[in-house]
Write a structure and sequence with these properties.
Strand content: 15-25%
Radius of gyration: 17 Å
Shape: globular
Helix content: 40-55%
Order of helices and strands: EHEHEHEHEHEHEHEHH
Oligomer: single chain
Length: 256
Amino acid sequence: MLIDTHCHLDAAEFGADQAELTGAARAAGVERIVVPSVERANFQAVYALCSQFASCFPAYGIHPMYVDHASDDDLNVLREYLREKNPVAAGEIGLDFFIDKYDREKQEYFFIEQLKLAREFDLPVLLHVRRSQDTVLKHLRRIKVKGGIAHAFNGSLQQAEEFIRLGFKLGFGGAATYSRATRLHGLLRELPLASIVLETDAPDMPPAFLERGQPNKPEYLPRIAEILAGLRGIPFESLALATSENALTVLDRMQT
């Protein structure tokens, strides 16, 4: 069994093909898919999708790239979804200091408020941490949450160890399949296997084996996992078992 811990299955690139996508994923051995939201406008779409497909599990949050048009009322709506709509995590939340002309103050405000909500409902969080690892860690030390996943992790070994100390797993996917991704390859070899989970971030973060412009899909996770297992020097089966156990440990509501 494989678990895709981060897949935007409701994305416009997929149209109305979710039944085909989830079926292809199951046929490939991907039995569970976590679907995070990115803004208030898609909370309901994520909830409806995960209500329709038993292999899909929702997370609700406001992504840092969407906070420019977010409001406190969105946080109120988020609270209701976290309370009533069966989330396995709060997410996707975090900080992004890579994008042009970002509003750091507003990003941090919404991140802090969403960490408080995750703490209120005893939920793990799905973190977006692009060029923001140290600032994210600063807030996590101050606002204690029930662990979670640092999605698409690309920080240093020292930062990775600090996320792990705070109860987090680290998400790896298509970015690590590229020959030039030497930092990720080093992390995959050095980190404890118990700290690693798999993800596609579909339709984004396409693996190296896709032609340019093709969307990523959850059915590609086994092939990604094979590459990552090879980088780590362990059998595919060992990586699949460990990463699935890790995902169920940190996202414990998927077990019920």
